């Protein structure tokens, strides 16, 4: 599950469910979508969203135990995994189209779908003393969903970095991820990450941007990803000077 709290102009989305690892199962995914829908409905000019998680994990990806509960290695287990892949895709679309800047504050591990969740935000901040970014699919014998690959191509600019993430299953510490251009900045503690996220959020909301304009510009920035997510662009004119 997750919670959503608004303080001033900043929404705080906190992952609380899916166990200590914040695994993404249908219940948690539904809770995420509900919170993002609420943030969208309550957004005003100059809003921002910060996503955090309790404990030492940001999210360790899909709830594979839930899938395997249908019978390890069975078609039913595969169907459950495919179901989570399908359910999670709109979460990424919700974030990419959200009418406000978004910040992921990683106070712990972000793996597989958890890393995709982080990269779906505009800014990613991470602690350097604990936690890794890790796309585990190669190690556990799964291919990448098409929108996972699209977000890697959209958000990880270096071909060498994409190779290490996808074809080496590298476990990246924050300082490595900053050097590779995958995340924005690293901090020496969970508290420092949260404080930095709040500072950044405060700077962004002061700009008082029109959220609809912001979302359309973001979508235009990632055409391949938006094509995979089924998001279309529209022209919006909100300036009184035109």
TrEMBL record:
Q: Name one GO cellular component term.
A: peroxisome
Q: In which pathway does it act?
A: Lipid metabolism; fatty acid beta-oxidation
Q: Which SUPFAM superfamilies match?
A: ClpP/crotonase (SSF52096)
Q: Which InterPro entries match?
A: ClpP/crotonase-like_dom_sf (IPR029045), Enoyl-CoA_hydra/iso (IPR001753)
The EC number(s) this enzyme carries: 5.3.3.8
Q: Has keyword Lipid metabolism?
A: yes
Entry keywords, A to Z: Isomerase, Lipid metabolism
Q: Which GO terms describe its biological process?
A: fatty acid beta-oxidation
Is Isomerase set as a keyword in this record? yes
The domain of life is: Eukaryota
**Where, if anywhere, are coiled coils annotated?**
none
MF terms per GO, please?
delta(3)-delta(2)-enoyl-CoA isomerase activity
Enumerate the Pfam families for this protein: ECH_1
Reaction(s) the record says it catalyses: a (3E)-enoyl-CoA = a 4-saturated (2E)-enoyl-CoA; a (3Z)-enoyl-CoA = a 4-saturated (2E)-enoyl-CoA
Spell out the Gene3D superfamilies in the cross-references. Answer: 2-enoyl-CoA Hydratase, Chain A, domain 1
What PANTHER family does the record point to? ENOYL-COA HYDRATASE-RELATED, ENOYL-COA HYDRATASE_ISOMERASE FAMILY PROTEIN
> Which family does the similarity line name?
Belongs to the enoyl-CoA hydratase/isomerase family.
Name-wise, this protein is Delta(3)-Delta(2)-enoyl-CoA isomerase
What is the species of this protein? Actinidia chinensis var. chinensis
């Amino acid at each position: 599950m997750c919670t959503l709290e608004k303080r001033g102009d900043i929404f705080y989305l906190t992952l609380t469910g899916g166990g200590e690892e914040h695994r993404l199962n249908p219940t948690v995914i539904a809770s995420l979508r509900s919170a993002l829908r609420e943030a969208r409905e309550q957004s005003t000019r100059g809003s921002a969203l910060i996503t955090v998680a309790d404990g030492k994990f940001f999210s360790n990806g899909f709830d594979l135990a839930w899938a395997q509960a249908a019978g390890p290695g069975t078609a039913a287990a595969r169907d459950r995994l495919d179901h989570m892949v399908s359910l999670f895709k709109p979460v990424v679309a919700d974030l990419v189209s959200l009418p406000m800047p978004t910040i992921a504050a990683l106070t712990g591990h972000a793996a597989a779908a958890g890393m995709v969740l982080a990269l779906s935000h505009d800014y990613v901040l991470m602690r350097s003393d604990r936690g890794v970014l890790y796309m585990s699919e190669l190690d556990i014998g799964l291919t990448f969903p098409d929108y996972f690959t699209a977000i890697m191509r959209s958000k990880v600019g270096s071909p060498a970095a994409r190779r290490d993430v996808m074809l080496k299953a590298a476990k990246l510490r924050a300082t490595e991820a900053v050097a590779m251009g995958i995340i924005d900045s690293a901090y020496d503690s969970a508290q420092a990450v949260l404080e930095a996220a709040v500072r950044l959020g405060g700077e962004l909301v002061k700009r008082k941007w029109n959220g609809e304009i912001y979302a359309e510009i973001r979508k235009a920035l990632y055409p391949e990803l938006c094509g995979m997510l089924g998001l279309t662009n529209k022209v919006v004119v909100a300036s009184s000077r035109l």
